[in-house]
Design brief:
nine-stranded mixed β-sheet, alpha+beta, four-stranded antiparallel β-sheet
Length: about 280
């Protein structure tokens, strides 16, 4: 395919995606602020780690509050408390939440430390980015949009299904996609005891035994699309995330990052920023 034809095909996919997408199906709720909060949430908000990592640090005895080593994450703190993390003072400060769009390439996992030693996106992020955490994940063989933020609370807010952020994908599968399969996926299915919420699936085009699909999810379970398709005998051989909530991949190249401006960020996420 010549370059003009590739560009035309990419434009067609983007137009189809935009015509099908629905950003938020539920009205987000604003988080409670200016009151004592659980310490794992405070550390995550500061961009030091994710909440899960903070809880692990606490269990490992790496966090103190007012001179006492914490033994449980069930602890609430406020700026009057003196906190240390890894023997370093924790500085309470007002930090501006930031968000970046990142095009995850194939062959990388989305984790800071992979037990299997596989390459991670955090090894190849642009040097200009600060310490960030991801909003959700994509597996090794998936590509496309990953949101990165310096605010762990914002990441958690966007991951929670109750806040209504849809995930949009273009997926290629090997096998025959029937109307019955699409209907069943639209009602939600159970696979190996795990319940998957209703997913919107539309056929973009079919060539031989391969079919290109637009898929919209409303939650982010591990390898959700692959497991749902496999349940119907369909093998996913290409998966690209095109959008997450109101944010789109568009023409962002693999390995590239783009910061969302403060005004736009607050406008697109009024539930988190309180309509500021």
């Amino acid at each position: 395919m010549t370059r003009p034809k590739k560009q035309a095909a990419k434009k067609r996919v983007t137009q189809k995606f935009n015509s099908r997408r629905s950003f938020q199906t539920k009205k987000p709720t604003a988080p409670i602020k200016n009151k004592p909060e659980r310490i794992a949430k405070v550390l995550a908000h500061a961009g030091l780690c994710s909440r899960r990592e903070a809880e692990q640090w606490i269990l490992e005895g790496r966090v103190t509050v007012d001179g006492e080593v914490l033994k449980t994450p069930a602890c609430v703190v406020s700026p009057i408390n003196k906190i240390t993390v890894n023997n370093r003072p924790f500085i309470w400060k007002s930090k501006q939440a930031k968000l970046w769009l990142y095009h995850k390439p194939l062959g990388y996992v989305v984790t800071h430390n992979d037990p299997q030693g596989r390459p991670t996106i955090f090894d190849i992020l642009p040097k200009s980015l600060p310490r960030v955490v991801s909003v959700g994940r994509l597996d090794l063989n998936s590509e496309g949009l990953i949101l990165l933020t310096n605010d762990g609370g914002l990441a958690r807010y966007m991951e929670l299904p109750k806040n209504g952020f849809s995930r949009h994908y273009r997926v290629r599968v090997y096998g025959t996609v029937t109307p019955e399969i699409i209907e069943r996926l639209g009602k939600g299915i159970t696979v190996d005891g795990v319940r998957y919420a209703p997913a919107t699936v539309e056929i973009d085009k079919a060539t031989g035994r391969n079919a290109w699909l637009f898929v919209t999810l409303h939650e982010g379970k591990n390898r959700e699309i692959r497991k749902m398709m496999q349940h119907f005998g369909l093998a996913v051989n290409r998966l690209t995330r095109l959008g997450y909530g109101p944010f789109e991949l568009r023409d962002l190249g693999p390995g590239k990052a783009k910061e969302i401006g403060e005004d736009q960020l607050h406008k697109l996420l009024p539930g988190y920023f309180g309509g500021k």
